[in-house]
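Q: How would the structure tokens look for this protein?
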Amino acid sequence: MSVLRIYAPLGEAPQRCQWALIGARGSTQGESALAGLPRGAARVQLVVPAAQVLLTRASLPPGARRRDGALLAFAVEDATAAEPDTNQVSWLGAVGDSNAFAVLDRHGLALWREALEAAGVHEFEVHAETLLLPREEGEWSLAWNGAEGFVRSGALEGAATDGGDAAMPPLSLRMLLEQARPEAIALYMVAPGPAPDLPAWQKALGIPLRSAGAWDWRTAPAQQAGTGLAQERRRWRMSPAALAKLRPAAWIAAAALALHAAFLLADWALLAAEQRALRGQMEARFRGAFPEAVAVADPALQMRRQLALARHRAGIADGGDFAPMMEKVALALKGLPAGALRSLAYEGGRMSLELAPLEAAALEGAMARLARAGLAVERAGTRLTVRAL
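A: Here is the predicted structure in token form.
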């Protein structure tokens, strides 16, 4: 499987880049404009210089999502001394009781993303140069170019160093050794600088050093690319040709929706007009039957009440009176077991029935019989409230 590795300093919008194409038959190196990058690689790796990637540790709250970029940015805010929204933070893995993170400049990475997209590269991985450096268990690895370099101090840890010379190691390396002491440090030379004086460095650091030969990000094996910091995938988009083909269908769908909305509005207006007409007829009939009424708020309800009053004046029982309702309720509950009715209360044309716990089928049957007898039924648990329609 071939891998195209691109060196990606995060700064201005990239025009040219150094690259290496690593395959089964060897590697090819070069420098060109982005449009001239080799094509057909199975994977594309963006290698960010060690000095532009901050590898740090932080603790996450229990249950925090390790892929939540906003949360991770705030988790490393103290280490970056920058606004959280200016950084892209990637979770690398657990290191002891804490978590390892990589912090990149969000804007600089966005410039590379846009430039590679324009050059036809839509999917790529992002790697830190620090984590490409090989490392033996118990050792640290130091890449040095004669003036500065970077150190890999763990599987997911490392840092860029400040300046030094052949006789004196960098101060930042000595400060790192105050926090942890490896068994030895393997020194990898990065062209073109001179090699340091190993005995002088060993004396200053108090740690054995060994020369590990030359190292270059271009020739680092693909399987030693380290943990990926991010993976950019092709963002879904529709081609202009496909949009042009779908435009007539979109116009037809829009016209159909507009026509459907117009019919709905017309139907709503017709139903509203019918409702107003029916209410007008009911109000006219109520006023014709009871001209002394001052206001008409609900013609149907007021008509039922006036009819009930008229029946009472004539000595005729109304359907909402206790006796007619009791008769209907008794017939409807006749099929229930003995003792099913625990209590009964009546007030103002409304009867409340408290029932014992019953099987669902028996309760639904009783409610159906009450409805057939002309009573409106409301249920709340084992309580039934009935009234005359």
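The first helix runs from residue 69 to 75.

The chain has nine helices and 18 strands.

Upvote if useful.
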